Amino acid sequence: MHTVYIDASSAILLYKAGLFVPCTQYFSIIMETHVYKEVRVPDHPGAKFFLSMVQKNSVNVCQADTDQQGSMNLPENMDLGELQTLVLYFQNVCPDQPSFIIIDDAKGARFCLRRKVPFINALLIPKILWFAGILNKNDYLDKTAFVIEIGRYSKTVIERAKALSPSDLAMFIPDEL
User: What's the pTM value of the predicted model, to 2 decimals?
Assistant: First the structure.
């Protein structure tokens, strides 16, 4: 099973689209403690849901070792949740274990591209689940349209996502069905 490190905005988008639970069934989801605090703000969408996901052990919450952050050359102007997600990923990545990041932050995505860190955004989750046979085509199209509607994606990002094939996304497709 893939290990997936997720930021708060991606988690909330997937929750709102009804895709977070399927993700927990096919991926081992890890949230950094700061990200977990962000998704647990009282009276915000998903606060109780994310608590229940942790209580059911569907999500693991782990703390990044910020003492090691300086040696990673991370962008200084990145939000703390995304920053801590990247630190946690680097501290735990294992060559024998498939893992990647789900991040919907442009600075974080650019950093991942430059450092060749495997990542996707929440917009690609419906497509990945469709390619894996978990969603049917209509659900894939509906969920993708919904994520586009509630997310903040540029036209370029949307067009790139539409163009990706199963071979482009192979490393993100769950293999244990």
Answer: 0.94
- Measure the CA–CA gap between 32 and 25, rounded to whole angstroms: 19
Q: How far is CA 101 from CA 42, 52, 119, 138, 139, in A?
A: 26, 22, 5, 26, 23
Strand 59-62, strand 27-32: pairing? parallel
Residue pair 122/18 in contact (Cβ under 8 Å)? The answer is: no
Structural domains of the chain, ranges and CATH numbers in brackets:
2-123 (3.40.50.1010)
142-151 contacts, C-beta under 8 A, 24 or more apart: 143/17, 143/18, 143/19, 146/16, 146/17, 147/13, 147/17, 147/19, 147/122, 147/123, 148/123, 150/13, 150/16, 150/17, 151/13, 151/104, 151/121, 151/122, 151/123
Measured CA angle at 174 (ends 103, 80), to 5 deg: 20
CA nearest neighbour of 147 among 23, 5, 3: 23
Q: How far apart are CA 105 and CA 132, in angstroms?
A: 25
Structure tokens at 11: 């988690």
pLDDT (tens digit per residue) in 86-139: 999 999 988 888 999 999 988 899 999 999 999 999 999 999 999 999 999 999
Q: First vs last Cα of the chain: how many Å apart?
A: 10
